[in-house]
Design a protein that fits this description.
Elements: E1 2-14, E2 28-41, E3 44-57, E4 66-77, H1 89-99, E5 113-114, E6 118-124, H2 128-144, E7 150-152, E8 159-164, H3 169-172, E9 182-188, E10 193-202, H4 208-221, H5 249-258, H6 269-276
Parallel strand pairs: 5-10, 6-7, 6-8, 8-10
Antiparallel strand pairs: 1-2, 1-4, 2-3, 9-10
Helix pairs in contact: 1-5, 1-6, 2-4
């Protein structure tokens, strides 16, 4: 795009002195005056020299005045490089880690994702803050994912969220792994598409902030990226204990990549990575 216009104004003034004739032959005089031209463009000043010569001949008395005005327009061009839209190697590697495995086993090295909208029902005894945290997670995910919608329902859910004491977990989900105050279990069909999910959040042994974190973590992992990682301490997929209450940029990238239409359930993670290296984000 064009920068500021530099404007150069050259003013030349040539003064010719007239020689008076005093007897006899005429004397011829040439007067040369140097004119300085200054051009200013976007903070840069250059100086050049122009020369004007005027001759006068003595006969009686003659005076010649010449004025020249020159305007020069200089266009400054600034070149900017558009940011890359490709996923970074770090984002793709993180996708491979958290979407290519499962925290408690059972992953098959293929893409698992929902292909239909999520209908979420809440059971147990959630607090007002628990419901608000769940609403924030759903709103965030609907802003990231463009291929499915997530909403709360009163009946016929395909995702159930239970807010109950940890001691009740085994009676609700037989596949529960003891010692976890937050847990998610999902089912997929023969093509690898997720068709059902169940999330357990303990109402005992946790602060409100810790529960809010577990709501976000377990619900997000119920979308398909089941594995945890030690790579980014502030990530929602971090293996260690945290109270992270929002998604990192790299978390959003992982979720976005998984729910791109180019990635289909049952595709191997290696095939998915080949696609992700070639497409632009968003």
């Amino acid at each position: 795009m064009l920068g500021a216009l530099g404007l150069a104004v050259v003013v030349a003034v040539v003064v010719v002195a007239a020689a008076l004739l005093s007897g006899g032959g005429g004397a011829s005089t040439a007067v040369t005056t140097a004119v300085e031209a200054t051009t200013t463009t976007a903070g840069t000043t250059s100086t050049s020299q122009a020369t004007t010569t005027t001759a006068t001949t003595s006969t009686t008395a003659a005076t010649t005045t010449t004025a020249a005005t020159t305007t020069t327009t200089v266009l400054a061009t600034t070149t900017t490089t558009a940011p890359s839209l490709a996923y970074s190697p770090e984002e793709i590697a993180y996708f491979a880690e958290v979407a290519g495995g499962a925290e408690f086993g059972g992953a098959s090295g293929v893409v698992h994702k929902w292909t239909e909208d999520l209908r979420v029902a809440v059971y147990g005894s959630p607090t007002r803050r628990d419901r608000a945290a769940l609403g924030e997670v759903i709103a965030d995910l609907n802003g990231i994912i463009g291929t499915i919608e997530i909403g709360l329902v009163e009946s016929d859910p395909n995702v159930e969220i239970y807010f109950v004491p940890e001691a009740e977990f085994p009676s609700i989900e037989p596949n529960y792994v003891p010692g976890n105050l937050g847990f998610v279990y999902i089912w997929w069909d023969g093509d690898g598409a997720i068709v059902r999910g169940r999330v357990l959040i303990s109402t005992t042994g946790l602060t409100a902030a810790e529960r809010a974190h577990l709501i976000r973590e377990e619900f997000t992992q119920g979308l398909g990226p089941l594995n945890d990682s030690w790579e980014y301490p502030d990530s929602i997929f971090y293996q260690g204990w945290t109270e992270t209450g929002s998604y990192l940029g790299i978390d959003r990238a992982v979720i976005e990549m998984l729910y791109r239409p180019e990635l289909v359930p049952g595709m191997t993670i290696a095939e998915a990575l080949d696609i992700l290296r070639e497409v632009d984000r968003g």
